[in-house]
Amino acid sequence: MRSNYSFKPDRCGVVCATILRSRPQRPLNSSVRHQNWGKTVSARVHKQKGFRRLVNAAGHQYAGAKHALIHDSAIRQVASGVAVLLIVSALLHVSTIEHLLLVLFTAQILLLEFVNSAIEATVDRISEERHPLAKEAKDLGSVAVAITVWLAGLVWLVICWPLVAGLFSGAGA
After folding, report:
1. pTM: predicted TM-score of the whole model, two decimal places
2. Which residues of the chain have pLDDT under 70?
3. Do 117 and 155 fall within a single domain?
4. Among 113, 120, 129, 136, the one annotated catalytic
5. SS3 of 163, please?
């Protein structure tokens, strides 16, 4: 006996059940679509829970970071710059709160670069052709990274200015 449903995963991994029984005949003109043609019902795929989910997530995070560092030059550049700044922040004689601000704002640059690269990869996956909305999505991701860089620079300036000013005022005496 034939089933009334056809199960297949879509691009997002969601299993879709397409109702087969109530399909009308395909119209002669293929450009005209009938309202009830191929009704689809979504069902979530069973996901891991508990500790196993955390282990799977860690594996995906490692794979994503490895892929990004190997294949994405922007992430490599930002990661190098962030590493240098984190080392410099560890060497500065600042309070714990100031050190925390330097680390968080600097690490946030790398975080936003990963998000920007994810946006760009998604846009490129959808279509390689030039489209105004694709350009807008990529530009907005780039603006988010730029704003984060400006904010981190401001935090570094505010925290490090007294240290730099102290070095120059002590050198002339």
Report:
1. 0.66
2. 1-46, 170-173
3. yes
4. 113
5. helix
